[in-house]
UniProtKB/TrEMBL annotation:
Gene Ontology MF term list: L-amino acid transmembrane transporter activity
Feature: compositional bias, Basic and acidic residues: 24-33
Membrane topology: Multi-pass membrane protein
Region (Disordered): 1-50
Matches recorded under InterPro entries: AA_transpt_TM
Cellular component, GO annotation: membrane
Similarity field: Belongs to the amino acid/polyamine transporter 2 family.
Domain of life of the native organism: Eukaryota
UniProt-recorded name of the protein: Amino-acid permease
UniProt-annotated location(s): Membrane
Taxonomic lineage from the root: Eukaryota, Fungi, Dikarya, Ascomycota, Pezizomycotina
Source organism (scientific name): Lasiosphaeria ovina
Gene3D superfamilies, per database record: Amino acid/polyamine transporter I (1.20.1740.10)
């Protein structure tokens, strides 16, 4: 039997015979298993000098490593937990076969469509808060942290991808949480709570920001009753309708338009900030000309600096959705192509927009989002208007991920409703989405210090979904490979990657502790300053 050199994910090197193959077509037919053939690797192994390429950039030369545990029946239609020896190729074959011939097929995303989903998730309104972060941290530390966080998130996303390749039955991060912590059911429930709360709070954020946009556009109209609540209801209904497409393949088309409009929006805001005579609120005598500092200004508190750093980090951290995206790819081995394209765009857009807008607004006049720094009302409204598709779509994306979590489990043993256009299937899908949006609306309107609470929730949840999970995943996979890279691999890369993943886990702990502390202090400061709003407020929240 031919052997293949196991591609090392993020640096490990290990030879592993491919001794588990899926059944032949004839064997599948005789046994009643009509699985289609997933594109198996029939080519010779890549040259040794190129072994690192598939590990970092994906493609057909990727060889999937061993599982860390048994197949979770809860994550795979029609079966109970099966033996650990089930290969990834066999599971993928079965998944594709189960969808074959159905009207609604989920594993249909190319890497280009997945890239569109990533672009629409990451290239969003949060970009316009980078100038404020740079004003607190100083331009040089701000830019350095932007690139450092981007590289860390890129690496952990590649670890996540490798885990999903080894366990193609997982549909979301909740399944991964259970598998990482030795198939304990409490881990699944704990992850599910964090998963749903995180997504619903992000939906609520977009309800509020949508209302902020409508308030900004209609600031001269006094005929709207209870403005912010009314506009929040409108945004909630629009988002619910836009959430109805069932597959990521369909959503990716909307996501492409969303990313394009967002790029236009930030480009216009950057240009307008540069051509305007003075930023909004300019007062030469009282405040002076805009001041740009390379380092933090004297007196910057830990809480302020931490909140600015967290603002940068949370914009990059989005791994919570990646397992759901990978689960609907035709060939998950191509995922890194989408990831690299998105990361390169993030690093360029975030740093350029943040630095340029900050350079023209300075420490005194910068706002978050930076649209508020534009002195010309027309410029502000035009630039903000191009952000509308993203204001809707990012919330839609998280709603769809949450709805999948419920929907796929609800109809796990009723594939007809899941894969066909049935009244029951569509009614359940629409109802689940509506429930998430109603809950998001209530959260946005009931919690008077919502923005600060969102920062606290992000500190609690992103510490796991952005860092801790993937450091643990690295060591679990290395153990499954038959060795612990940090201890037994005497190569420089083995030691280095072991240390890196320990630091990633510690970074998650830092977010969980210091990040939570800074967020709580921010809430306390709001109460002290008397800036906490009221529930279901009618007062405008426009820029």
């Amino acid at each position: 039997m031919k052997t293949k050199t196991k591609t090392k994910m993020a640096g490990q090197a290990q030879s592993l015979p491919e001794n588990v193959k899926g059944p032949t077509q004839e064997e599948r037919s005789e046994s009643g298993d009509h699985s289609s053939s997933y594109p198996r690797q029939q080519h010779p192994p890549a040259p040794a000098a190129q072994d690192w390429m598939p590990a970092w950039f994906g493609g057909p030369h990727v060889v999937v490593g061993p599982r860390i545990g048994r197949v979770l029946g809860s994550a795979f239609e029609g079966g109970s937990d099966t033996e650990e020896s089930s290969s990834a190729a066999v599971i993928l074959d079965k998944q594709i076969a189960l969808e074959d011939g159905h009207a609604i097929q989920y594993r249909t995303c190319s890497w280009q469509k997945t890239a569109a989903l990533l672009f629409s998730e990451y290239i969003c309104l949060a970009i316009m808060s980078f100038p404020w972060s740079y004003s607190v941290l100083g331009l040089v530390p701000g830019l350095i942290l932007t690139f450092v966080v981007a590289i860390i998130v890129l690496y952990t996303s590649l670890v996540l991808w490798e885990f999903c390749l080894r366990h193609p039955e997982v549909r979301d991060v909740c399944d991964i949480g259970q598998m990482l912590f030795w198939n304990k059911k409490w881990a699944w429930y704990a992850t599910a709570v964090m998963f749903l709360l995180n997504n619903t709070f992000i939906q609520a954020l977009h309800v509020l920001v949508g209302a902020k946009y409508l308030n900004t556009m209609t600031d001269a109209d006094d005929n709207v009753a209870c403005r912010t609540v009314s506009f929040s209801i409108v945004v909630t209904l629009i988002c619910w309708v836009c959430s109805l497409p069932r597959t990521f393949s369909m959503l990716s088309k909307i996501g492409t338009a969303s990313a394009i409009f967002t790029f236009i929006s930030v480009l216009l805001a950057t240009v307008f900030a540069g051509v305007q005579t003075h930023p909004a609120g300019y007062d030469l005598l009282a405040i002076g000309d805009p001041v740009v500092t390379a380092l933090p200004v004297a007196g910057t508190t830990f809480v302020a600096a931490m909140n600015a750093f967290l603002n940068i980090s949370y914009t990059f951290i989005g791994q919570i959705t990646l397992p759901s995206f990978i689960a609907e790819m035709k060939d998950p081995r191509d995922f890194p192509k989408a990831l690299w394209a998105c990361t390169a765009a993030e690093m360029a857009v975030f740093s350029v927009v943040g630095a340029v807008v900050y350079a023209y607004t300075g420490n005194q006049y910068v706002t978050a989002p930076a649209f508020g720094s534009l002195a010309d009302g027309v410029h502000k409204k035009v630039a903000f208007s191009f952000m509308v598709p993203t204001l809707v779509f990012v919330g839609v994306l998280y709603a769809s991920v949450s709805a999948r979590f419920v929907f796929f489990r609800l109809f796990r043993n009723a594939p007809h409703h899941k894969n066909e256009h049935t009244l029951v299937g569509w009614a359940a899908w629409a109802a689940i989405l509506l429930a998430t949006w109603i809950l998001a609306f209530i959260i946005a309107e009931v919690i008077p210090f919502f923005s600060s609470l969102l920062s606290l929730m992000s500190s609690l949840f992103d510490s796991f979904f952005g860092f801790i999970f993937w450091g643990v995943a690295y060591f679990r996979m290395r153990t499954a490979d038959g060795r612990m890279a940090f201890v037994k691999d005497r190569s420089v890369s083995g030691y280095l990657l072991g240390v890196v993943n320990v630091l990633i886990i510690l970074t998650g702990v830092f977010f969980l502790t210091a990040g939570s502390y800074a967020s709580v202090e921010g809430i306390i400061d709001e109460f002290r300053a008397g800036t906490v709003g009221s529930t279901f407020t009618c007062k405008t929240n426009g820029l």
